[in-house]
Amino acid sequence: MDYRLATEADLPAECGLFNRAQGGLYRQHGFARNETPFERFAAPHRHLLAHDPARCFVAQVDGQVVAFAAAIVRGEFWYLSALFVDPDFQGRGLGAGLLELAAAGWPARRATITDAIQPISNALYARIGLIPSTPVLVMGGTPRVAAPRDLEPASPSGDDLAALDAAAYGFDRRVDHGYWATQGDVTVWRRQGEAIAYSYVSEQGWLGPLAGRDEAAAGDALRAELARRAQVMLEIPGSAVTLVETAFKAGLRIVNPPGLLLHARPVRLPTALVISGYWLF
Fold first, then answer.
1. Do residues 208 and 195 lie in contact, with contact meaning Cβ atoms separated by under 8 Å?
2. Cα angle 113, 35, 250; round to 5
3. 136, 167, 165: which is closest to 243 by C-alpha?
4. CA distance linking residue 10 with residue 196, whole number of Å
5. For the chain, how long is the longest CA-to-CA vector?
6. pTM of the predicted model over 0.85
7. DSSP 3-state assignment of 76?
8. Where are the alpha helices (H) located in the chain, listed in sequence order?
9. All residues at 6 or more sequence positions from 40 whose CB lies less than 8 Å from its CB, including other chains
10. DSSP string for 216-246
11. Is residue 80 a contact partner of residue 112, using CB atoms and an 8 Å limit?
């Protein structure tokens, strides 16, 4: 086997490998899972390759890509975006080898998201100090909720987004807004002229990220966004209690097995955030 930096030419092999690994995992636990189409898989991974190319790797056996990993660093925050091994090649240490490469020189604040039904992966991450800290709830349905009367939708400014990212994420996400803007429409929610939250929604009805200046602001913005949607899907960290309560009160339900948000110490759990997804957090 050998390891090397990933390229865009590897994406078809990575997508097939990802679908085999996830499909096998879900079927093993009695869950159905549709395959992720190539373009949906490739879009965030092209972004990873463009902005964090030194943290994207593949493992090969006889020239065949059998595993891949990708991570991002935003300021002092490291996030493992992907680590998948072909089912036929699991148990050979490939995942640990790729993780070591993607983590080289990582900053102190570290996180990833896994499926809760992945005991082997979660044990691997725990050995390097990434401990399960809160569930990630995949919720969806037809929302039925009234919007707050004192919130107004507006176009965003760079300063608005930066301030809200600092509050909700704790680090700069400027480079990722460039990608998110290609995937959905963004709204900044204002109260008496002040930006209190932003939200992205795709044409397919995926909501996220949504980031608020605090927990209450994020909850109000979620109500406002849900009030104008016929169908929606979103992923909420369990630590964002107000957002979880808001989603349930709007009639949404948990629709997929939950994920787990894993953190190294020091832990800063999100309380005002609907995540963008597993790939970019």
1. no
2. 60
3. 136
4. 40
5. 62
6. yes
7. coil
8. 11-28, 38-51, 94-102, 119-127, 158-168, 174-183, 215-226, 241-249
9. none
10. HHHHHHHHHHHTT-SSEEEEEETT-HHHHHH
11. yes
* Helix, strand, coil percentages for the chain (3-state, nearest 5): 35, 30, 35
The answer to whether residues 197 and 218 touch, using CB atoms and an 8 Å cutoff, is yes
- Local confidence pLDDT in tens for the 281 residues of the chain: 899 999 999 999 999 999 999 888 888 888 888 899 999 999 999 999 999 999 999 999 999 999 999 999 999 999 999 999 999 998 889 999 999 999 999 999 999 999 888 878 888 999 999 999 999 999 999 999 999 999 999 999 999 999 999 999 999 999 999 999 999 999 999 999 999 999 999 999 999 999 999 999 999 999 999 999 999 999 999 999 999 999 999 999 999 889 999 999 888 999 999 999 999 99
Q: Are strands 259-263 and 152-154 parallel, antiparallel or unpaired?
A: unpaired
Residue 272 exposed, middle or buried by CB count within 10 Å (0-12, 13-18, 19+): buried
What are the chain's domains? 2-107 (3.40.630.30), 139-274 (3.40.630.90)
Sign of CA dihedral 13, 15, 18, 20: negative
Sign of CA dihedral 13, 16, 18, 24: negative
Q: What is the dihedral of CA 125, 127, 131, 136, to 10 degrees?
A: 20
- Find where tokens 């490939």 sit: 94
Q: Which two tokens stand for residue 182?
A: 């290609």
CA angle 238, 241, 244 (to 5 degrees): 75
